[in-house]
Amino acid sequence: MYSIGIDTGSVATKAVLYNGNIIDTLIIPTGWSPKSSSKNAFEILIDRNNLCKDDISKIIGTGYGRISMDFADKTITEISCHAKGAYSLNSNIRTILDIGGQDSKVISLDSNGNVVNFIMNDKCAAGTGKFLEVTLNNLGIDVDDIDDFCRNEKPVNISSMCTVFAESEIISLLAQGKPKEQIATGILYSIADKACSLLNRVNINEKIAFTGGVAKSKNLKNILETKLKQRIFSTEDTQIIGALGAAVIGWNLHKKR
């Protein structure tokens, strides 16, 4: 038997097929309909692993689109799922920094992986994937190319964390002749400063995990490690942690039956 965890975010829908180990993962655009994308993710995992619906013991939904998953057996908050997912990969994790498309959050865990505290920035795009996307668009840079573009560059200071004001600041910096590479590096430093500010609002305990779409930037991870003066844990698939946690929860529910 298997469990499937589906994390439908504002930008991407992530899904994990699980049976005590990760069997398959999937990331697709959420698009205009979280309900359609989450159902599509489920069906893709089933089809490409030659399974039928009876092979799936539990379907657990999470993320902002979880309320639309009427086919899920249970829906659980993304805070709980991120905690479970990160802890399942590394039981030394005590703090999670997650930066997604529309929000960022910090989660504190105890030695058993239970959530003891969390703080979330979901009222403003500052320091999120949307902030990175919008500001880089002003430079004509694709988000996926950010690490190659600003490798070993000296950062230009971006003083504003407001997306609108940051756009104006970047246009002004370009008019002053500042190199795009240095401005892009400055954007990463700006996101790192925002992340550190969020981390400092809870007790930072080792070890820290960095998750979410923005965590794919190795340059940003290195900047954070320098600022925090410690190593940060991350995986190749930084976006699937919430879906993994949902799948693990589903698997544990299956074992209790």
Per-chain topology:
Blueprint: E1 2-8, E2 12-18, E3 22-29, H1 34-48, E4 56-62, E5 74-75, H2 78-89, E6 95-99, E7 104-109, E8 115-121, H3 129-137, H4 146-149, H5 163-175, H6 180-199, E9 208-211, H7 218-228, E10 232-233, H8 241-256
Helix pairs in contact: 2-8, 3-6, 6-7
Question: Strand order, biggest sheet?
Answer: 3-2-1-4-5
Low-confidence stretches: none
**What is the 3D shape?**
globular
Strand content: 15-25%
Average pLDDT score: 92
Determine the structural class based on helices, strands and strand pairing.
alpha/beta
Main sheet makeup: 5 strands, mixed
Number of strands: 10
Q: What's the tally of helices?
A: 8
Taking all Cα atoms into account, the compactness measure Rg is 19 Å
Helix content: 25-40%
How far apart the termini lie comes to 12 Å
Order of helices and strands: EEEHEEHEEEHHHHEHEH
